[in-house]
TrEMBL record:
Belongs to the ArgJ family. This is Arginine biosynthesis bifunctional protein ArgJ. It comes from the Bacteria. It is found in: Cytoplasm. It comes from Paenibacillus herberti. Substrate binds at residues 165, 191, 202, 288, 410, 415. The gene is argJ. GO terms for cellular component: cytoplasm. Catalyzes two activities which are involved in the cyclic version of arginine biosynthesis: the synthesis of N-acetylglutamate from glutamate and acetyl-CoA as the acetyl donor, and of ornithine by transacetylation between N(2)-acetylornithine and glutamate. One of its GO terms (molecular function) is L-glutamate N-acetyltransferase activity. Pfam families: ArgJ.
Amino acid sequence: MAQSQHTAVQRFTVVEDGSVTTPAGFRAGGLHCGLKKTDRHDLGAILCEVPAAAAAVYTTSKVQAAPLKVTRESLAAGGRLRALLVNSGNANACTGRQGEADAYEMRAAFADAAGVPLEGVAVASTGVIGELLKMDRVRTGIAALPQRLKDGREGSDDFCQAILTTDLVQKSVCVAVQVNGRTVHVAGAAKGSGMIHPNMATMLGFVTTDAPVGSEALHALLRQATDKTFNMITVDGDTSTNDMLVAMASGLAGGDELTPDHPDWEAFASALIYVCEVLAKAIARDGEGATKLIEVRVSGAESDASAAAIAKTIVGSSLVKSAVFGADANWGRIIAAAGRAGEPLDPDTVDIALGPILTLEDSRPVAFDEEAALEYLKGDTVEIIVDLKLGDGHAVAWGCDLTYDYVRINAAYRT
């Protein structure tokens, strides 16, 4: 166990060696079926030994990949899932009726292979848009996958590898929290590094927990968590066709069902939101070609919504991102981005700091140590702090710098 994390409600603890298989009832795994040109895993699954209460949120794009339709139908059948099936290397998006048929076949094939009900399987895909799946390879992989599912860290690592595309690192986290006088685990895994923009950034995210919570309450909490975390990251301003965040709760920790009226609800909610925040920041830090994580903190706005809009505009500005990459303390780009966010702002009262270095006070330049600012901006995390001095609204957004490698990676994505 690492040192405890503290929230305004209750302490929860990060489980350093935990994973999506740590909550009771879950197994996971992955394998290479041939969708990727490399030998990295490209097909994975999470399986729950009991019907798990489930919830999901999806991309806001009007163009949505076939697996989203299949997953929506599975959840609509009763709000419970037994399994999540995921492939990388092919998004199965913009593939017409054949793509839909392939997504439905994936669901049916895994349900049969794993011995679970058809409507108990969710399907997700990520990768190149506009290409049909090589279903002969997918079928072979699905047939072998149930035997590869494990309840230890190995299974989780194989799953995390199977969902990656241009990601450089696997992204997972697990925490423990006391609920009903018992230890409950909340864990998550995610992928994402390009086509990342707020309002369900392009990502796949999977949360598992053994908490006794129903689908309706879980769905409301997942939306709240998404608004505070995944909807507050950006890499490049593009939104994907395949974004999906799914949560599954086995309930095997036991005890009274968690609802917003339960005395331990806030503790559980803070743990789940923390898991989503860690994954969201990991996605932002792993942005294609990125060298730095940028965290923008806006306070003094008229409302939290206003602060969020301003923070997302700043962290998504190509000029701000480029300045951070170049370690240039160009506060002018920051206030310019804030000013175009379309939110209330007094141009005479803005303070801006780069970490501990104040650069602007009441919208007037402050003499600061350029060398100290250069050294600060060379770090792998850059905090931009903006105080508008208008009200009590505040928000945090995350992103990354814009580098030469981002262009290189995306100039040859299909090859």
